[in-house]
């Protein structure tokens, strides 16, 4: 590539990454697809396109890019995104397999740990789910999403009091989302309080 083409490609990627970070995954995906026409085996572009597809709820398309990239250059990040796509599609066996590979390779990936916890919850493996959510919270203690998921795993496992213990302080601070408030109400209803 000539210098102007390289600069243009770098500017395109910066623009796409900005779009992705600001919640415009479809716009980012358009740019990634254009760049993939020129460089179809660029593993970074394949990963970014797959991630953008996951954020845009295009999970089958995400698997296309992610599986190709993972074949070319296997990585724990590819496994995480492949697992998340399978999870969204309801393919729990494939999701668990990919997410376990990801977490085994990178124990500091809170997103993979949270996704693995969701997978375990859907498989009614609540103890394993709580461990994954707790590990994710150890890495990102301010995550209300992970805390809510941990509480939900307690509630689904028949221990709504533990769920209340986790959720009520968040509610008291005024930080509770509607989903978190709903889970708190369900926990109270299950506990009989």
Description:
With 193 residues, the chain is an all-alpha fold. It is 80% helix and 0% strand. The chain contains eleven helices and no strands. α5 (76-89) packs antiparallel against α6. It starts with a helix and ends with a helix. The mean pLDDT is 93.
Summarize the structure.
By secondary structure, this protein is mainly alpha-helical. It has eleven helices and no strands.
SSE layout and pairing:
Blueprint: H1 3-21, H2 25-38, H3 43-55, H4 59-72, H5 76-89, H6 92-105, H7 110-122, H8 126-139, H9 144-156, H10 160-172, H11 178-191
Helix pairs in contact: 1-2, 2-3, 3-4, 3-5, 4-5, 5-6, 5-7, 6-7, 7-8, 7-9, 8-9, 9-10, 9-11, 10-11
Task: Find the count of extended strands (DSSP E, 2+ residues).
Answer: 0
Low-confidence stretches: none
Q: Assembly type of the shown chains? A: single chain
Distance between the termini: 68 Å
Q: Report the average pLDDT across residues.
A: 93
- Global geometry: elongated
Q: What is the CA-atom radius of gyration, in angstroms? A: 19 Å
Number of helices: 11
Q: Approximately how much helix is present in the residues? A: over 70%
| Helix and strand element order | HHHHHHHHHHH
Main structural class: mainly alpha
As a percent range, the share of strand residues is under 5%
Query: Which sheet architecture does the biggest sheet show?
Result: none
């Amino acid at each position: 590539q000539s210098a102007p083409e390289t600069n243009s490609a770098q500017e395109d990627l910066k623009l796409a990454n900005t779009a992705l970070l600001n919640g415009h995954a479809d716009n980012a995906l358009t740019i990634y697809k254009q760049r993939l026409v020129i460089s179809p085996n660029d593993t970074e572009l394949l990963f970014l396109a797959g991630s953008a597809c996951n954020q845009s709820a295009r999970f089958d398309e995400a698997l296309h890019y992610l599986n190709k990239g993972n074949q070319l250059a296997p990585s724990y990040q590819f496994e995480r995104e492949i697992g998340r796509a399978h999870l969204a599609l309801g393919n729990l066996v494939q999701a668990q397999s990919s997410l376990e590979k990801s977490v085994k390779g990178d124990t500091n990936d809170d997103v993979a740990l949270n996704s693995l916890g969701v997978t375990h919850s859907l498989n009614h493996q609540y103890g394993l789910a709580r461990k994954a959510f707790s590990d994710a919270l150890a890495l990102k203690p301010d995550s209300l999403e992970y805390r809510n998921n941990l509480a939900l795993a307690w509630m689904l496992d028949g221990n709504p009091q533990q769920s209340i213990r986790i959720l009520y302080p968040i509610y008291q601070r005024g930080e509770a989302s509607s989903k978190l408030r709903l889970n708190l109400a369900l926990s109270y209803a299950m506990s009989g309080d």
